[in-house]
Amino acid sequence: MSPKIRELGIGAGILLVTLAVAYGLLTLAVHLTVDDGMQFNLEMWKYARDIKRISQDPLIGHEHTPNTEAFLMGVDIKINSQGQRDQEIPLGRTPGTGRIMMLGDSFVLGWGVPLDEIVCKRLEKKFAADGHPVEVINAGVGNYNSIQETEYYLVHGYKFHPDLVVLNFDSNDSEPVPTYSDNNFFERNSELVVVAKSMMDSLLRKSGAADRWDQYYLSLFDNIPAWDAAKAAIHKLAIATRAQGAKLVIVSWPELHDVQHYRLQKIIDLARGVAESEGVPFIDLLEPVKGMESSKLWLTVPDPHPNAYTNGLYADYLYPRFKDLLATH
Questions:
Q1: Are residues 43 and 25 in the same domain?
Q2: Which strand (E) or helix (H) includes residue 304?
Q3: Are residues 275 and 128 in the same domain?
Q4: Is 182 within 8 Å of 21 (Cβ atoms)?
Q5: Which of 53, 76, 134, 228 has the largest CB neighbor count within 10 A?
Q6: Do 83 and 192 sit in the same domain of this protein?
Q7: What secondary structure letter does DSSP report for 160?
Q8: Per-residue b/e over 30-50, b at no fewer than 16 CB within 10 Å?
Q9: What is the pLDDT of residue 100?
Q10: Contacting residues for 226 by C-beta, under 8 A, at least 6 apart
């Protein structure tokens, strides 16, 4: 080997070692100074890493890995053997006990909210206190849309024989089902990359180079093929629940960035229109929070997931409506 080639090899080796050390130091710095356990993007990344797995069903996309747990956004997330954030629930019905299945995403999951304070558990307590026990099954999985929720019910959920099936609908439910092919090794495994991408996204939105949150959500429903696919999935769910003797209801969860000057009424109206076309009840959860100080409803300042207080407002609003629906079942 010539001295020049050897010199180039040594230089390349030094460069690689330097980059590796710099990467390690930056990663350590992020872990020590940024990762306080309450950073939304980092916690969602940990959720995907520790709790989720890719489903064999492409319409489900991803699912919870059974019997896993993690401490995320300040609370314990424990997944049962059926892949639900819930206690163990047998497929067979308990005599004298009603059953509600809540299909949804991270809102229904109860992101950042202790288990006994999420909507599902609050509803169970209200039914029990009223002398009419009802199991409210938490089938919420982070980042699910209407297509995934419907497929989950068609493949798994129906086996629980619910009396009432609740399709919890929100402003990103017209997103396409992820394909998971665009996440590279570093995006899957590096806290540093997650933080860097989050900072870049924030800068682009603040500069106007990327859509604001309201523009993004509205654009999802301007995408006709995507919205048509979501409506087709809901139609399949309506047919299936009718055939199985379950009652379907669509519940609209508002985006909580600004409930005083709500900008996504178009999405609520579209969801209401689907409910009307399918002949199923519709419940709008903007009503119990409309006009309130928005930040009072958030989990944290950069994360407008509903906090425990908001979960309580929603449960109070849903309980009498669910009770009436079960009474007429």
A1: no
A2: strand 303-306
A3: yes
A4: no
A5: 134
A6: yes
A7: G
A8: beeeeeeeebbbbbbbbbbee
A9: 98
A10: 174, 175, 176, 220
Count of beta carbons in the 10 Å neighbourhood of residue 294: 18
Longest dimension (CA), the chain: 88
Domain residue limits at 26:
1-33
What is the number of domains present in the chain?
Answer: 2
Instruction: Compute the residue count for the chain.
Output: 329
Give the domain CATH number at 92: 3.40.50.1110
Q: How far apart are CA 66 and CA 75, in angstroms?
A: 18
| pTM score, whole prediction | 0.88
How many angstroms from the chain centroid is the CA of residue 114? Answer: 15
Q: What does DSSP assign to residue 89?
A: -
The two three-digit tokens of residue 122, written as one number: 């609050």
User: Which residues lie closer than 8 Å to 239 by C-beta, 6 or more apart?
Assistant: none
Identity (one letter) of the amino acid at 313? L
Residue (of 322, 135, 150, 158) closest to 246 by Cα position: 158
Contact (Cβ atoms closer than 8 angstroms) between residue 138 and residue 109: yes
* 96-137 pLDDT tens trace: 999 999 999 999 999 999 999 999 999 999 999 999 999 999
The whole-angstrom separation of Cα 314 and Cα 319 is 8
